[in-house]
Structures are given as structure tokens and as C-alpha cells.
């Protein structure tokens, strides 16, 4: 009776109230609100409230959530020691995965899965991820670790801890928008991973650690770093056409294009494209933006008919680069935002749990003889 769907394509495996995607029309909504409207009007903190409570907050509720996040940004001193014990050439996604896993060691009751406890752990992890990323980046650069501040927003505080100085308003707002755009996206691979782990009634730390591992993959969140590597590899605007055509001829994938769900441009990419254009105009550094739009044109001409268009990772690479972030911090930025979606999904899963346990179609032999070691 069971059907086999490679990569689980088309399989509906959870109910959610958080985000809705129409891949044909290029629509993404969080709790019914179009992503474009949230990116223009909301903040990351408000988006977190929306996803976790499935409604917009009033002022007092938003202030309370912001305060709760800000009061939890400090890391346990022993976790700072762990971070300082890591090799300086370690990749930030591996550092983040290890540090989030280690956070459970400083929680006296890490295994609690009742909803209030899960919400509490979600808040802590969301608040501490930016501090972990900034602390490791400064430590590897031989700089003093900057303590979080409680008077700054989520976006401002991260950029402050990373750079040791407050960001400009434009930079903080741009970064905040990136956080909003990446917060949730249906049952993507890392979110599914978090829900699968949660369905065993394992703990929030294990679920988020596993999700970080999933996000790192180049077919998922790791694509934004690969996009930047590709842009760095192309020497000039004139070299874009032969470079892309050469890759397509070898049947290689162009990172930042294609999506399991979207068969048109990803609405997050549309927003980020406008944003990347604005930053290029503001900074006078047009090269990356021009190269990106050229790649987009070639891809539309060559593979647009197959439904392959830019995804969120394509223009987020240029955006993060313009904000001054190092390439290997791009995927950690994704995790820093998506943890809101992961945690929200874990809580949804706990609220109506059933163990995930799909079947595998066995395609090997039957009734095979056991051959003794000496005769193999
Ligand atoms: N470049 C060139 N061709 C592509 C690309 C691409 N980026 N993506 C898909 N294709 C082609 C495939 O070669 C295949 O062609 P064929 O039918 O002629 O063999 C066809 O499109 C379908 O590809 P599938 O792999 O079956 O599509 P799937 O839904 O499994 O893949 C995926 C989705 C993994 C995202 C894919 O598009 C890809 O590898 N993209 C590049 C990596 C990337 O940008 N990932 C980020 C996704 S967004 C996110 O996770 C945040």
C-alpha cells in the first residue's frame, strides 16, 4: 500500500500554523502575513513572537519578549572556555553545532519536554546563538570577546558583538530584514530534522544541534557560502557567461538556484535582490550585484523552463558580503534566524506528537547464504 517518494517529494509529513508556501506562485507567508509585508514593516523579535504565538504581539508583549531575549544573551563562562579551546581554523558551523550541543550541559534540566520548559529552552538557545558566533569569530581573530548589551536589538547586538562597535542604522535594519526572511520555511530539511528528533521526545538541544548539522549542507543553507565562492571565482562581468555555460555543460549545479518547492523566483530572493541593489548603489560597489543579475539572466534563459530560479541563498550571499560579514559566517547567519522556526516547529511537534518512523523499500537480495570468513 505504501508509496515510495525519493527525497520525500510531495509527501506531507506535518501540520503547521507557522508558514505557508505556494511554490508555483512564489508566495511565502508567516501565519498568513506575506513575507514582503513583514520584511518591510516588522522586526526579527516581532517575527519570532508571530511564529511562536501565531499572532502579532501588542506593544507590551513585544517589549516583554525583547527583554526576555536580551536578558539571556550571556554565555555560561565555561562555554566561553570551550569556545576558546577550539582550533582557530575550525569552521563556524561546526563550532556552532558543538557549542549549541554543549549548552545542554549547563542546563540543570535539559531533558524537559513539557511546553513551558521547551519554550524556555528555545528562548535561551535563540538568545545565545549570536553570542556564540560573535565570540568565536573574535577569538579566532585574536580579539577580545565582546560582552552582549541589553540595550540593543537582536540585530544590533550581534553586529556590535562581532565588530566591537554599534552598527549604523541602515546596516542593522538590513541585517534585521535578513533575519526576518530566513526565520521559517515550511518543512525544509533542517526543520524536518528538528521535528524528527523532537518526535522521539528527545530534548530541544539535540533537535537544534541536529538541525544545524542539516542546514550546513551545500544543498541547503550551505549554498549561500558556495554562491559567494562562485562570485569570487569569476574574474569579471565578461567572464560570467563562459563560466556559467561551462558549468551547465558539465551538468554542474549553480548554487543559489533551484528549489524543491519554488518553481518560480523565491519571494525572499526578490526582496533580497532589491536590497542588494540598494546596497550596491549606496556603497558604489556594483560589481557583485551586476555579476549576480547577469547569472540570473543566463540561468533564466538556459534552465528557466525547468523552473530553476534564484532561491534565498543567491542574493543573501551578496547582501551578507556587503554588510561586511566573512564568507564562512553566512550559513551561521541563516542558523541564527532559522532557530526561531526550528524551535517553533519542535513545540508544534511536542503539542501533537507522533513518532516519525517512515519505512524503507528493501532492494537487496533475500535468503542469502552466510559465507564463512575464509571462503569469502
Ligand atoms: N543548477 C543547475 N541545474 C539544476 C539546479 C541548479 N542549481 N538545481 C536543479 N537543477 C536541475 C537538475 O540538474 C535536474 O535536471 P534534469 O531533470 O535535467 O536532470 C532538475 O533541475 C531537477 O533537479 P533535482 O535535483 O531533482 O531537484 P531537487 O528538488 O531535488 O533539488 C535543490 C532542489 C537541491 C535545492 C537543487 O535545486 C540544488 O541542488 N540547488 C543548488 C543548491 C542550492 O542553492 N541550495 C539551496 C536551496 S534553498 C535552501 O535550502 C535554503
Condensed summary:
The protein is mainly α. It is 56% helix and 3% strand. It has a three-stranded antiparallel beta sheet.
Structural overview:
With 376 residues, the chain is an all-alpha fold. The chain has two domains: 19-221 and 326-351, Citrate Synthase, domain 1; 223-322, Cytochrome p450-Terp, domain 2 (Orthogonal Bundle), CATH 1.10.230.10. The chain is 56% helix and 3% strand. It contains 16 helices and three strands. The chain has a three-stranded antiparallel beta sheet. Strand 1 and strand 2 (27-30) form a beta hairpin. Helix 1 runs antiparallel to helix 8 (169-181), helix 6 (115-140) packs parallel to helix 7 and helix 11 (223-233) packs across helix 15 (312-323). The model has no long low-confidence stretch (mean pLDDT 95). Bound molecules: acetyl coenzyme *A.
| Biggest sheet: strand arrangement | 1-2-3
User: How many beta-strand elements?
Assistant: 3
Biggest sheet details: 3 strands, antiparallel
CATH superfamily of the largest domain: Citrate Synthase, domain 1
User: Would you identify the CATH architecture of the largest domain?
Assistant: Orthogonal Bundle
CATH topology of the largest domain: Citrate Synthase, domain 1
Euclidean distance between termini CA atoms = 38 Å
Taking Cα atoms only, what radius of gyration do you get, to the nearest Å?
A: 22 Å
- Nearest-integer average pLDDT: 95
Low-confidence segments, given as residue ranges, are none
Portion in beta strands: under 5%
Order of helices and strands: EEEHHHHHHHHHHHHHHHH
Helix content: 55-70%
Figure out the total of helices.
16
CATH class of the largest domain: Mainly Alpha
Work out the oligomeric state of the chains in this entry. single chain
Query: How many structural units, i.e. domains?
Result: 2
Which molecules are bound besides the chains? acetyl coenzyme *A
